[in-house]
Design goal:
This protein has 227 residues and is α/β, with parallel strands linked by helices. It contains seven helices and nine strands, in the order H-E-E-H-H-H-E-H-E-H-E-E-H-E-E-E.
Length: 227
């Protein structure tokens, strides 16, 4: 999922205020490709869906990536749910987590420990609410984890290759983690900066999305292993 932007101003809310905001601007629903999971998501019925990035900046809220189930995350979560051995009993990082969707999928199939990272502090409340709705336990890391290594066995990254500068930072980090034995799985709906080499396709899905977020109603999404 698109990573929060470090340059955006965060809405100055207490945790209880953030929870109130999320509950008022989202509904608890299941993403179409992972009906086993319920998330607090924005839809056409909520003002948050229709606000532009500029309008959100005016009220001090970074773009609410946590309020949407992006195609890359849905595809990756689907793959994890269908292939539980990949994460079962392991320490998993859901990188650029947003809503926590992929981490929740890992929890549902028996991951041993799950960390979710994002640089948007608003994601912490969103992930806590979503984890609770799915009886999952997830620890939140509010920092840029690129370059870090906390011993994760599996790193799950949904929809992260959408900007070249970010992609240029991710590739050497993923390589370093892979070289010491971690498994890196990427969910990608055809973003421009996905590496052309060094990855292997594991599965492809047709994921329903919305034209407000994407340029189509269905995005072909591939789960890749970083080799």
């Amino acid at each position: 999922m698109p990573h929060g932007r470090s340059g955006s101003r965060s809405l100055k809310l207490t945790p209880s205020g953030a929870e109130t905001f999320i509950r008022a601007n989202t509904a608890l629903m299941s993403p179409p490709h992972v009906p086993e999971i319920r998330l607090h998501l924005a839809d056409e019925a909520h003002d948050l869906w229709r606000k532009t990035e500029e309008e959100l900046a005016e009220i001090g809220l970074p773009p609410p990536f946590w309020a949407f189930a992006w195609a890359g995350g849905q595809g990756l979560a689907r793959y994890v749910l269908d292939n539980p051995a990949i994460v079962r009993g392991k320490h998993v990082l859901d990188f650029a987590s947003g809503s926590g969707l992929v981490g929740i999928a890992a929890a549902k199939v028996g991951a041993g420990r799950i960390s979710a990272s994002d640089i948007d502090p608003f994601c912490e409340t969103a992930i806590q609410l979503n984890a609770a709705a799915n009886d999952a336990e997830i620890e939140f890391i509010c920092e840029d984890c690129v370059g870090a290594d906390r011993g994760w066995d599996v790193v799950l990254a949904g929809d992260v290759f959408y900007e070249k500068p970010f992609a240029d930072r991710l590739i050497p980090w993923f390589e370093a983690l892979r070289n010491r034995g971690a498994q890196i799985l990427i969910g990608d709906p055809g973003r421009s900066y996905l590496p052309k080499q060094g990855i292997s396709a594991l599965a492809t899905y047709e994921v329903p999305v919305t034209r407000v977020l994407e340029d189509a109603e269905v995005k072909r999404t591939t789960v890749w292993r970083f080799d």
